[in-house]
Amino acid sequence: MNIVEQVWAWLTNPENWQKNFRDPGIPTRIVEHLSYTGLALLFAIVIAVPIGLYIGHTGRGGFLVVGIANSFRALPELGLVILLVLVMGVALALQAVTIALVALAIPPLLAGTYAGIRNVDSDVVDAARGMGMRERDIVWKVELPIALPLMLGGLRAATLQVIATVSIAAYVSLGGLGRYVIDGRAFGGVEGYAIMAGGAVLIAALAITVELVLAGVQRLVVSPGLRTSTVSRRVTRVRIRPVEEPEVATS
Fold first, then answer.
1. 186, 192 in Cβ contact below 8 A?
2. 54 domain-assigned
3. CATH code (residue 53)
4. Could you say which of 14, 142, 180, 201 has the lowest number of CB atoms within 10 Å?
């Protein structure tokens, strides 16, 4: 039996989907994986979105977006987790993992929010000011709805990155689907490789599923006019050349 058949056998084994003395089961690991992801995204949204809204609306400190995004993306998440665990202690391993994942999620959220607000047509903003709207109302009622597609795009990118990286939680004795990757490596042998590959397949399948769900949510909450505006602008740029009729020779 080759490795593909062994992975399939492991994934379809009912015992792996139920709680037993060795493992709480795949469903429990998926819930743990999603809980770590949701916790990190929640803190990242609270930090990144307000900063992106302020910088995008005022135009002040735009260089911070580039600086923060580049610096946070350069951080090695696994090394950061190990360092934080050594400093904070094993008892605070969940907090250490959350901090590392928040640092990973902030750049796409911040960049998406900033880009969405800055790309709002200045004429629309000026018209809102001319109507007497306050700056806070302009942000929430004018700029934010228009910037929503790019903001959700940043959220989708951040979510995929975090889901793929949550596996590092297993390095510090936490749960999640990363447990199968770590435990399979420790188990060794062909069976161990099958467990590792099965865990990787589950992580990839979870990321694809969440991406499809977020894409559906984005389609529901974003106005159809905003979804088609980009396509409309591209269509208007196409130059249609008239078809020249062939010349008819006259005798």
1. yes
2. yes
3. 1.10.3720.10
4. 14
